[in-house]
Amino acid sequence: MNEKYKILFEPIKIGPVTSKNRFYQVPHCTGMGWQRPNMLASMREIKAEGGWGVVNTEYSQFIQVQMTYLTHTQLYGIIQM
Prior knowledge:
Elements: E1 12-14, E2 17-19, E3 24-25, H1 37-49, E4 54-55, H2 72-80
Parallel strand pairs: 3-4
Antiparallel strand pairs: 1-2
């Protein structure tokens, strides 16, 4: 393996969690979320089986506050409290 890519396979700490490598699927909207939840779950499962260190979901409503949605950054702040 080329030395410049070696760092991609090293563990990295993200908040309270340590990822096994630096492959991170960013949150992105596939349009499958509420219409095809099983298909979306299968897509994330395939990425996890393929060795991705972190597999993120698409934009999700976790807590409803006056009909607004929390971003993953806001949710992370709540978990840290």
